[in-house]
Amino acid sequence: MNELISKRRCSSSGALLVTALLFFSGSAGAGYAMTAKDMQMLPSYCSQLSADNYEANAQAYRIAGSFPAGMPHGHHYCHGLKSIARATAQSTNRREIQENLQAAVGEFRYVLGHTGVSSEYYPYLAMVRADLGRVYDRLGKPGDSSQEFMEAIRLKPDYVAAYIGLIDFYRKLGNRGEALKVAQDGLAHVPESKTLQRRYRDLGGKLPYPTPIVSESKAASSAEAPSSNAAAPNVAAPDNDNNTTAAEPPATSSPTDDQKPPQEAKPQEPKIGSPTNPWCRFCPPPELQ
């Protein structure tokens, strides 16, 4: 009897072990490759990776073409976004949520660690930083989260998503004053952002909105616009403060010899015949015909 009970216990333990293994393997979700469900939650450029990044049921979502040149190690970035999407879709299994968020951190940190610090990559790196900040926020790491948002703003001062992340960070801390300062700074760089305008008003900001900042680079480009346009004679530019381009001469200037319209040649009087028929030597005048 005891032997039978022992066998049943072993059998039950084995069954429980198999069930647990199946549960945890299922909770790990799909493998590393992207599934069809993942693809429905990812941006379009994540459809341009190599075929081995997709499960069989996701191959139909793949788009032929090269990945954007300004996004080095973009497949890691897309897999990070995939992990965030899976964590968001899984709202009950906390273990799986944490695993996916940690996987996203790893993917984003890889991109940041392997992409050269060059101004041409600043917009891309700002995007990665802001996404990493959101992941840290969900992992309960507010210090890391705020640092990533600040770095994203430094890289791309007109990146609205980074301002929103930092505003929400301060609001969670109950620091509405700092949140309002971030909203003011954001509107100074992106005055047309409706989202920042709404955050600014919600935080008690007064109208009119903050004065927009005109960067030195924009001012310099505006001042140099006429000369740069003159270097491209095939591009017609509007008249600005009486400055004109080589493609569009001033209306008041006299045309050059090359630009003068050809003058019409005066017809020669016929040497024989009549004006209506110069080839008829002996025809009578028209009034007698």
Can you put this structure into words, describing what you see?
This protein is mainly alpha-helical and 289 residues long. The protein has a domain of 59 residues. The longest helix is centred in the first third of the chain and has 26 residues. The radius of gyration is 36 Å and the shape is globular.
Order of helices and strands: HHHHHHHHHHH
Which regions are unreliable across 5 or more consecutive residues at pLDDT < 50? 4-28, 220-274, 279-289
Count of DSSP strands? 0
- Amino-to-carboxy terminus distance: 145 Å
User: Based on CA inertia axes, which overall geometry fits?
Assistant: globular
Structural class: mainly alpha
Described by strand count, sense and barrel closure, the largest sheet is: none
Number of helices: 11
What share of residues are in beta strands? under 5%
How helical, in percent, are the residues? 40-55%
Cα-based radius of gyration, to the nearest Å: 36 Å
Mean pLDDT: 76
